[in-house]
User: Which sequence fits this backbone?
């Protein structure tokens, strides 16, 4: 009898519902689009990483031996362009955000599923332009495209690259718009704003920044293109323009973009810390509102990139004090995460290791940001390796740690399988150690005065550069490892069950992988987020293994 | 190789002050980060799953605690801001009575013009114990002038002057870097600042100890005076103010009332702009009739003109250079 077959014997999920290429390429399922993005940005991450490897290898010696000046200049430019626009900015919102926002708020899909698919195609289309620029010979302006170098002097593929970035901006806006509308309109019954998981808060804040800031970038790049192609004087003084104007416009987008990159990571941290400490996030409202605080103040600090660019010293002072202020919401978050550990029931599984790594590295990144906000110190360290170290602590030490930690945390949900825990912990430790060895020496290098974007350098900087490159080789191993064991786990990993971490949150109340429509029945929310109890976790500690078995679905 | 410094040499009057601020920031960072790292480890061990630590009544939100850790960073941050801002003000504003040296950045070299006529490439000879002001511009893209030992950096922009200053405190050779990416040989746009004791500097100036890279030209003000006459500037800018343009005597450093109602300080960049784009700022009471000299004077000639106009000091009237003409 058909009804006697257990419902979970063959359960339809978003992965097995169809295997055709067509079903993937024309999908409007937010989970599948998240996976499409995961594949695309992983590809870009490794391309950008390969460039970084070459840069670090070149810097082992003070002379130009592996690559010459022109190649080096193209490598660091392409590294920056790929990592910023094709990995960091899309990473968490498009992969985890796409996958999780509807699941976490109890919705069946995003508000605009077709727009969601369109955003992936627009992303790939923009990527194609930039990829084309890359294979034709690359671009050598630095990812910041400062004119008049970029508009008059550079002989490389500036326009092609800029068109790619221009197009990709639309994909960011589509995703952000979708997240904003979805969070407003599609929350499950009972899911009030202050019951939302903090991951939703931070992605919501991020989306607001994306929608407001990205058009400014589009406009700026368009003006740059007009000047380069038609020689209309906008930024080049030889044509009557003002080069500092470009810097204002560029950083009006690109500084908020730093928060576009880091805020979603902070959302991941809140989820993981709460789950692995079995505690409700300490100061939930403060953490939630801090995200909005960062989004708002983050728009008012762009001028701190121009303390020595010739802007008025009074303007610099204003931007400096605002930059000190924007650090406060970040500090609130770090303090509250730390306080969440108090009286918790802490287990150091892979996602938690990544996220504790995030807290440490982000703290260093944030504090060194204060060095740069301190006007007189910035005069000395501006455009040196100190800046490179600072923003890699935020973006790689912070953002990438959070992203990979998040991928591990939700991997059972996305794939239905557990990754090998031992390998996960090993990779987290390798990345943490390799990262510090790579970037900590760069703080010292920077204070000693080594400028950025130099392929040759005075010999006294060599020892620190060798340390940094040694660290980078360890870091590379740390990044490649998860690639292998995560793919391996797709076939050989243990079956995860709906809720292997015994986490709260609506995404864990449905099967893993989730069915195409996410929930058989839309859940009703009756309590606040993170209803964890450390004492209950302790009481159940002995039964963990059995619970995993019991919660498994038969394959 | 085993000597492992954390700070570069301190060779300017404010290098020590910058290092002190940097050290204070480092101390403050440790003050904040060590407790966080300690607590993370402490909690992770004490409250590890399965430990028998007391977990009763875990606190929820504690508003007092939140207020403390909002106020504490805010006050510390404001303190550091004020400190850094005062020092920045000092570093960015050249004192009066400086030795003025003109710098042109271009792909990929530094061209230096001394007031007494010496020209150098990628090397700047300066005396110790005397404030030196650099008046800088670029002929092509943006460059940035950076001497780590002096803790001084300033972008060098095309189309305008920016200034930087320092007072070398110790004789020696210090590295000069370009720190704004400017194309292929950006990393080779390096040079040296050679700080010399005043006596040696005098000797260098007099030409007895010059390097092969130094060329001689006329003193800037003399060359500027000739140019001023040749271009006919003096036909309108008469010293007694009776011409169609304002008198330039004592102009440099003064406050200028503009037709628009604004008041601006007549610094080097103002003089430059008034020569190249005379319509941009019209002095109150004058007609916008001056033609632009854009494209008619080179960067070198601009330096000469600016140096000459700066030398026109209100009291010691240099009548020989500026003869009134009807």
Assistant:
């Amino acid at each position: 009898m058909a009804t006697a077959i257990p419902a979970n014997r063959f359960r339809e999920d978003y992965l097995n519902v169809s295997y055709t290429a067509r079903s993937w390429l024309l999908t409007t399922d937010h989970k599948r689009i998240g996976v499409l993005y995961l594949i695309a940005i992983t590809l870009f991450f490794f391309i950008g990483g390969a460039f970084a490897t070459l840069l670090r290898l070149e810097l082992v010696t003070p002379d130009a031996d592996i690559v010459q000046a022109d190649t080096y200049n193209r490598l660091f430019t392409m590294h920056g362009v790929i990592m910023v626009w094709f990995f960091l900015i899309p990473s968490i919102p498009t992969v985890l955000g796409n996958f999780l926002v509807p699941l976490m708020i109890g919705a069946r899909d995003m508000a605009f599923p077709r727009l969601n698919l369109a955003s992936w195609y627009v992303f790939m289309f923009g990527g194609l332009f930039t990829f084309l620029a890359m294979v034709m010979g690359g671009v050598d302006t630095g990812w910041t495209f400062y004119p008049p170098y970029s508009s008059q002097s550079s002989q490389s593929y500036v326009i092609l690259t800029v068109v790619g970035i221009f197009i990709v901006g639309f994909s960011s806006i589509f995703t952000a718009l979708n997240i904003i509308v979805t969070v407003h309109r599609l929350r499950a019954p009972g899911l009030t704003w202050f019951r939302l998981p903090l991951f939703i808060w931070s992605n919501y804040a991020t989306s607001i920044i994306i929608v407001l800031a990205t058009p400014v970038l589009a406009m700026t790049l368009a003006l740059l293109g007009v000047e380069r192609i038609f020689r209309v004087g906008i930024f080049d003084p030889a044509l009557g323009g003002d080069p500092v104007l470009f810097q204002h416009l560029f950083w009006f987008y690109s500084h908020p973009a730093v928060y576009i990159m880091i805020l979603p990571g902070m959302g991941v941290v809140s989820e993981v810390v709460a789950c692995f400490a079995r505690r409700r996030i300490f100061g939930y409202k403060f953490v939630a509102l801090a995200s909005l605080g960062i989004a708002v103040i983050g728009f008012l600090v762009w001028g701190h990139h121009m303390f020595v660019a010739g802007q008025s010293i009074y303007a610099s002072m204003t931007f400096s004090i605002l930059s000190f202020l924007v650090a406060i919401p970040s500090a609130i978050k770090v303090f509250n995460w730390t306080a969440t550990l108090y009286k918790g029931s802490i287990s150091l599984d892979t996602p938690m290791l990544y996220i504790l790594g995030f807290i440490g590295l982000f703290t260093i990144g944030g504090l060194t940001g204060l060095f740069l906000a301190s006007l007189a110190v910035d005069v000395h360290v501006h455009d040196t390796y100190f800046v490179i170290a600072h923003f890699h602590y935020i973006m790689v030490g912070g953002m990438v740690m959070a992203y990979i930690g998040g991928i591990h945390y939700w991997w059972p949900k996305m794939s239905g399988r557990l990754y090998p825990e031992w390998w996960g912990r090993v990779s987290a430790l390798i990345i943490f150690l390799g990262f510090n060895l790579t970037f900590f020496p760069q703080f010292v290098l920077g204070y000693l005065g080594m400028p950025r974007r130099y392929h040759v350098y005075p010999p006294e900087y060599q020892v620190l550069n060798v340390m940094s490159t040694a660290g980078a080789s360890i870091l590379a191993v740390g990044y490649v490892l998860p690639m292998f064991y995560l793919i391996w786990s797709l076939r050989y990993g243990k079956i995860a069950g709906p809720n292997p971490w015994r986490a709260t949150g609506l995404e864990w109340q449905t099967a893993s992988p989730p069915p195409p429509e996410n929930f058989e029945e839309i859940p009703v929310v009756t309590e606040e987020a993170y209803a964890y109890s450390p004492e209950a976790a302790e009481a159940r500690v002995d039964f963990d293994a059995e619970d995993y078995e019991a919660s498994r679905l038969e394959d | 190789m085993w000597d492992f410094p954390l700070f570069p040499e301190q060779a300017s009057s404010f290098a020590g002050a910058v290092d002190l601020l940097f050290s204070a920031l480092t101390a403050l960072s440790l003050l904040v980060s060590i407790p966080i790292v300690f607590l993370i480890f402490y909690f992770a061990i004490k409250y590890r799953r399965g430990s028998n630590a007391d977990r009763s009544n875990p606190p929820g939100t504690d508003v007092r605690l939140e207020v403390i850790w909002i106020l504490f960073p805010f006050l510390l941050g404001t303190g550091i801001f004020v400190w850094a801002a005062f020092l920045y003000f000092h570093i960015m504003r050249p004192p009066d009575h400086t030795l003025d040296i003109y710098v042109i950045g271009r792909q990929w070299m530094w061209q230096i013009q001394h007031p007494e006529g010496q020209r150098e490439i990628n090397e700047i000879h300066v005396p110790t114990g005397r404030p030196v002001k650099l008046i800088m511009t670029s002929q092509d893209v943006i460059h940035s002038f950076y001497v780590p030992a002096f803790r001084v950096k300033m972008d060098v922009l095309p189309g305008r002057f920016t200034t930087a200053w320092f007072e070398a405190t110790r004789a020696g050779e210090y590295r000069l870097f370009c720190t704004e990416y400017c194309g292929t040989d950006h990393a080779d746009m390096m040079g040296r600042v050679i700080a010399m004791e005043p006596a040696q500097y005098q000797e260098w100036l007099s030409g007895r100890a010059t390097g092969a890279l130094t060329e001689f030209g006329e003193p800037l003000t003399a060359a500027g005076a000739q140019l001023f006459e040749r271009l006919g500037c003096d036909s309108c800018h008469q010293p007694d103010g009776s011409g169609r343009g304002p008198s330039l005597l004592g102009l440099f450093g003064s406050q200028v009332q503009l037709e628009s109602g604004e008041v601006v300080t007549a610094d080097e960049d103002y003089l430059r702009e008034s020569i190249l784009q005379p319509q941009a700022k019209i002095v109150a009471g004058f007609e916008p009739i001056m033609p632009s000299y854009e494209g008619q004077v080179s960067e070198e000639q601009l330096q000469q003109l600016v140096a000459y106009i700066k030398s026109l000091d209100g009291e010691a009237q240099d009548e020989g250079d500026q003869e009134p003409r009807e």
Summary: Chain A has a mean pLDDT of 93.
